[in-house]
Amino acid sequence: MNLTLIMCTLGRTEEPKRLLDSLVIQTHKDFKLIIVDQNTDGRLDKLVADYSSSLPITHLQSSPGLSKARNAGLSYANEGIIAFPDDDCWYSPTLIEQVSNFFTKEPDYNGLSINRAASEKSCPKITPEQELSKFTIWGKVPSICLFLRYSATLEIGKFDEQLGVGSGTLWGAGEDSDYVLRSLHKGHRWKRAPSITVYHADNIQRTDVKGKARVRSYSRGLGRVLSKHKMPLWSVIGSLILSLLRILKALLLIDFQGYRWQTQALLGKIEGLLSKEKQTIDSQNHH
């Protein structure tokens, strides 16, 4: 089964090379890579040239914005299974084969979410496979873990360009959850398969001011998605309680960095729930 991998990238050179290295050694060779390049300095030109003889690569240019870049990549997809690897993730040699086998054996499923680990040395807990619903997707559908049929993307449409990194709005994440929720609304079936793992290092530092700001921005995105999809009040309250419990746990463990971290996450979630449609970063700064 053919796969199309849409990798959007900005500001990185070494990390995309690691992903490409992992693609060269895939046991399943029926795939193509679309690189959506948001750089303006040509930094990836040599990398693309070096790997073009080993991988089927389409190299596109796009203006900044993760959702915007993914939409540009989707416009070049036309078959099979679609995936959205980050430019700093990498695949095990059998990952594409495992994903292809899943969709071959499970024709009734439109989408698949897999596991994520920080490295090959990590040992994520392998839980049973799970049918996903709008109540069980939370925390389980980061974009690098998503694979879905091209036919499903035609029904879902484009990523919401108001959500995600580089959107220019308050909502620095949530585009992946929003996409899966819209898919579920179309009647599509999704399964989570924790036995398949993609690797992605945790790059956010708790002691980093920028890291805390990023967590708050990501959490605003989560709050915005909860509001956009009019999740039941009990679901929203449950999400807020979970954040409060994480804050309490950090205090009990005398983990002050964790306390500050989780507090930023809670504040961001509340801001996202209360934010208005198309509210930009500039509009917040003016208040």
Report on the structure:
The chain contains 10 helices and 9 strands. It has 287 residues and is of the alpha/beta class. It has 2 domains: 3-200, Spore Coat Polysaccharide Biosynthesis Protein SpsA, Chain A (Alpha-Beta Complex), CATH 3.90.550.10; 209-285, no CATH class. Strands 1, 2, 3, 4, 5, 6, 7, 8 and 9 form a 9-stranded mixed sheet that branches. Strand 1 (3-9), helix 1 (14-24) and strand 2 (31-37) form a beta-alpha-beta unit.
- If you average the pLDDT, what whole number results? 92
CATH superfamily of the largest domain: Spore Coat Polysaccharide Biosynthesis Protein SpsA, Chain A
SSE topology string: EHEHEHEEHEEEHHEHHHH
> What's the number of domains?
2
